[in-house]
Amino acid sequence: MKTRREFLREFTVTLLLVPIAASACASASSGAGTAETCNGLDPTSTVALGHTHTVCVLQSDLANPPAAGVTYTTSSPDPMHMVTLTQAQLRSIQAGQTVTVTTSVANNHTHNFTIQSAA
Q1: How many structural domains compose the chain?
Q2: What is the pLDDT of residues 79-112, one digit of tens each?
Q3: pLDDT number for residue 34
Q4: Torsion of CA 28, 32, 37, 41, to 10 degrees
Q5: CA 113 to CA 47: how far, in whole Å?
Q6: Cα 39 from Cα 57, distance rounded (Å)
Q7: pLDDT digits (tens, 9 = 90+) for 34-76
Q8: How far is 119 from 94, CA to CA, in rounded Å?
């Protein structure tokens, strides 16, 4: 059973991440405006604690990788994680190479994503 402190900490983190996740979903949506559609690649993570996540790697970021790289928020279920890709990794994916990245730690666990374009 969780202590009150653990519950409040997780609840606070969730509240802080909701705007980030909403922003990520909005930017990852198609022109049709549906958050479930990814305009790019949407790989599924490895399983950890009985669940997986997806992440939307935007086609626009693959076509024109930002110098500073990009950070995406994974899909639900909670806890969501952050996935950071460098400019070099985005270029590799666009060239058809496979890139494996590890998410940020959330609720004492991480996931791995293997990302490859069909280029």
Answers
A1: 1
A2: 999 999 999 999 999 999 999 999 999 999 999 9
A3: 35
A4: -60
A5: 10
A6: 8
A7: 356 899 999 999 999 999 999 999 999 999 999 999 999 999 8
A8: 7
Residue 51, beta-bridge partner list:
48
Written as six digits, the tokens of 60 are 């626009």
Q: What is the pLDDT of residue 119?
A: 57
CA of residue 118 relative to chain centroid, distance: 19
Q: Report, in this order, helix, strand and coil percent for the chain, each rounded to 5.
A: 30, 25, 45
Write down the residue that tokens 């490895």 correspond to.
46
* Token pair for 112: 């791995």
- State which residues form the domain around 21: 4-116
Pull the structure tokens for residue 41.
Answer: 């690649």
How far apart (Å, rounded) are the C-alpha atoms in residues 38 and 109? 25
Upstream peptide bond of 65 is cis (omega within 30 degrees of 0): no
The amino acid at 50: G
Under 8 Å between Cβ of 69 and 89: yes
Q: Map residue 51 onto helix, strand or coil.
A: strand
